[in-house]
Amino acid sequence: MSVRYDYKPFGHQHHHHQSQDNRHNYQISKTSESQQEHEGSGGQKMSEQTYVPETMQALRLPRGMHDEDEEKGNLGQRPRSGPALLEFDSAVPTPIPTPSQYLIKVQAAGVSVGEVRAITRVGEKYRNPPSNDATVVADGPDLRGPIPGREFCGKVISTPTEDQRMAAGPTFKVGDEVIGLLRCRGDNSDGDQTVDGEAADVVEGGHGAAAEYTLAVQQELAFKPRNLSAAEAATLPLATLAAWQALFVHAGFDPDDGECNRPSDGPLRVLVVNAGGTDVGRQVINLFNVPTFFPALSHHIMGGKGPNETAVWICVTGEPADLDTLRHSNYKFDASTTRTDIAEAFRENGWGPVDVVIDCSGPGGSATRRMLHSPVVVKNKGRIIGLHQPHSTYPDKPSERDMRAEAKARGLATEHVKVQPNGRHLAKISQFAERGDIRPLTHVPVFDLIDGREALVDAEKTRGMTGRVILRVDPAISEI
After folding, report:
1. Is residue 444 domain-shared with residue 393, that is, in the same domain?
2. Sign of CA dihedral 322, 196, 121, 208
3. What pLDDT is stored for residue 186 in this prediction?
4. In terms of domains, do 466 and 397 share one?
5. Domains in the chain: how many in total?
6. What is the number of H-type helices and E-type strands within the chain?
7. What is the distance between the alpha carbons of residues 380 and 263, in angstroms, rounded to a whole number?
8. Which residue, 254, 230, 276, 221, is CA-closest to 423?
């Protein structure tokens, strides 16, 4: 039996004269196929109603602040960008889903300093948004600024009307707990979609998850791992999807056939640059340690079973404190260095070159990229996967042209991850998290939504662009 949900407002009250307690009612009507057939002939339509507030609590940025400040000469009185601009607002209009969108009641949301800085840098996009990009209220477009938060855990409140006309109905039902990664402006384009730094982008439509309700399409969602709390589950989507796509899309490994992921000449050799300083780096190491993806090789001698050969040799680089954090968190790796000259560290320690480099160091200069392309560091026909798009230089420097020519001659493949929402990838991550193979990021601190501004300001001071927090939107959920 298919189910149809009609999502429509009724009993609207004028926004400017309402209090926080006034509610905007949305009716969700649930009708079976057989009931639909009889509606035209006088059959009674059974319905059940749920009520969504007309306004919601959210952490948001003001719209058009910079122009106003410039006109009034207040540039020295307000911060120009970053978390200090955030405001907690208890009267933000609740978003209304399109026929392809789910309405999600958010339980916990992940927000990074880099994302907030990116939003404030492109705030001019929100002064005059296109009509299809504005929150719809009776008084016209919402004049508030965008809401941050790409990743979240929450509960489905309403399902897409276009899916409910299909025989199978929507993938996620009302009441299902889900995790998600929201699409950014610029996804599926040449825009820079990176994770742990300044290049993080703005959630499409400005409706991020640092709010009581958010909108998502099917490809942005997966079922929540049942063994994790909402706060734990909210740490998974962005960093783990970036790590997953680095390994299983860009590096060419196969998550469904681990035996094919081993080189013929011994263990897979991997270098993870700045592993401890980024959430993506931690999840890269986590994935390399999943036996299903990279199984160890068993030696059989004279009918007996000998010792297992390690599946992956992992070398990590980073600051001493970050490497200590990795060790204390039981992330498994074989070698480490705090040296900035990675090629020299490989020479001094007698380490052979690696098959794959995963670079989580952020946008770097040509000297850093040349070092990672060194034959001392990476084998011929090896892969270099960057989590950040390098800054382009025009015209090209001779050293840049020489590096590309050498990389081509050695058969090196260099790619940059533009993390994309992907329901299939996220579902796999959720399954392995439920098995205990993929771990949540338990070091990320949890704060209530109302304290989000102060939490992110503090994260910016202590961690810079990589600072990140989980915001507990539903007070009933448990902490990590």
Report:
1. no
2. negative
3. 54
4. no
5. 2
6. 13, 21
7. 13
8. 221
Considering just the CA atoms, what is the radius of gyration of the chain in Å?
25
CB 312 within 8 A of CB 426: no
CATH code: domain of residue 311: 3.40.50.720
Beta-bridge partner residues of 153:
108, 179
Structure-token pair, residue 69: 């400040």
For residue 323, being part of any structural domain is answered with yes
Give the containing element (helix H, strand E) for 110. Answer: strand 102-112
List the structure tokens of 137: 């209220």
Q: What are the respective helix, strand and coil percentages of the chain, to the nearest 5?
A: 30, 25, 45
Looking at residue 114, the DSSP 8-state letter turns out to be: H
pLDDT at 59: 96
Residue 447: count of CB within 10 angstroms of its CB: 19
* Helix ranges (DSSP H) in 332-477: 342-349, 366-372, 398-410, 423-435, 452-463
Q: Is residue 430 part of a domain?
A: no
Closest CA to 467 of 329, 273, 224, 278: 278
The low-confidence residues of the chain, meaning pLDDT below 50, are 1-49, 66-76, 123-143, 188-200, 299-304, 394
List the domain range (segments joined by +) for residue 271.
Answer: 241-298+305-416
The conformational region for residue 254 under phi > 0 = left, psi -120 to 50 = alpha, else beta, is: beta
Q: Are residues 27 and 111 part of one domain?
A: yes
Tokens of 391: 């800054």
Residue 78 belongs to some domain of the structure: yes
> Taking the model in full, what pTM does it have?
0.80
Q: Is 142 found in the same domain as 14?
A: yes
